[in-house]
């Protein structure tokens, strides 16, 4: 009887132990299944979080793995050797369907109801003029009027000391007016008698080489690009966006390539409205741009307008 009792107690203890192991293993299996159910079905299905401002890419365009979507820091082929080749492969067969100053992707006004205006002045260089409108700039400094200056590589090369002073002045925001002051195209299309960039590689150089030079001299890479003549085709627009740049158009023609007289400049500027982007020039001191601007600004201020950098507000 005693032996039977000992055997019974031994068997009961063994059953309890085995049952406990089964419960523990079952609990572990359930926990593992729950953990798996909380994960994506595969690593490839996980969507990474990308920091910065990302421009959506149309579904017909596949972003290669070695190029980031446009961000607040425009890209440079000089720092990423594969970048230019990737863009050439992406666009070399693309055929433009649009051409002009105000095609989709070119930003023409500030997104705001505030009574603010962005004054932008191009410095073109070369045969388009490498002069410096000191009267205009001195007036902006004296009156503390912020402005965005679009500087071409040829103007920069002709005026390095002036450029350094302007770039060091917080009143002025320095942006990119291209390397050779050409319309931005992929087939050489001309505007105002100026031949456009001839292919994808040429368009990339036009955008990035001057941006590299400005960055080298200032420590800041331009955020905006404006082509020579402000003309683009739609493929070139996509290329500039893939390089991370915003394209700066305008909705107030301030001096028509520095051809307006004082009264024409004045009347153009006072038509500006909330969010207007004004295009004028600072490379023709012999023209009337300065006089027209100096006449218009007090009138605009009296009407309640103030002046801001192009980057102060979103643009579209």
Structure described in brief:
The chain has 316 residues and is an alpha/beta fold. It has nine helices and eleven strands.
Q: What does the model show?
A:
With 316 residues, the protein is α/β, with parallel strands linked by helices. The protein is built from 9 helices and 11 strands. The chain has helices at 2-38, 81-91, 134-143, 153-158, 160-168, 200-218, 234-242, 262-269, 289-302; strands at residues 99-100, 106-107, 116-123, 147-151, 172-176, 224-225, 232-233, 246-248, 252-253, 277-281, 306-307. Strands 3, 4, 5, 9, 10 and 11 form a 6-stranded parallel sheet that branches. The longest helix is centred in the first third of the chain and has 37 residues, at 2-38. It is globular and about 55 Å long. The termini are far apart. Residues 1-71 have low confidence and may be disordered. Residues 115-316 form the NodB homology domain. It comes from Paenibacillus anseongense.
Largest sheet: 6 strands, parallel
Terminal CA distance reads 96 Å
Shape: globular
Strand portion, in percent?
5-15%
Low-confidence stretches: 1-71
The oligomerization state is single chain
Fraction in helix: 25-40%
Rg over CA atoms: 31 Å
Keywords: Signal
Organism: Paenibacillus anseongense
Protein name: Polysaccharide deacetylase family protein
Task: Detail the topology: elements first, then pairings.
Layout (H helix, E strand, L loop, with lengths): L1 H37 L42 H11 L7 E2 L5 E2 L8 E8 L10 H10 L3 E5 L1 H6 L1 H9 L3 E5 L23 H19 L5 E2 L6 E2 H9 L3 E3 L3 E2 L8 H8 L7 E5 L7 H14 L3 E2 L9
Parallel strand pairs: 2-8, 3-4, 3-10, 3-11, 4-5, 6-8, 9-10
Antiparallel strand pairs: 1-7
Helix pairs in contact: 3-9, 8-9
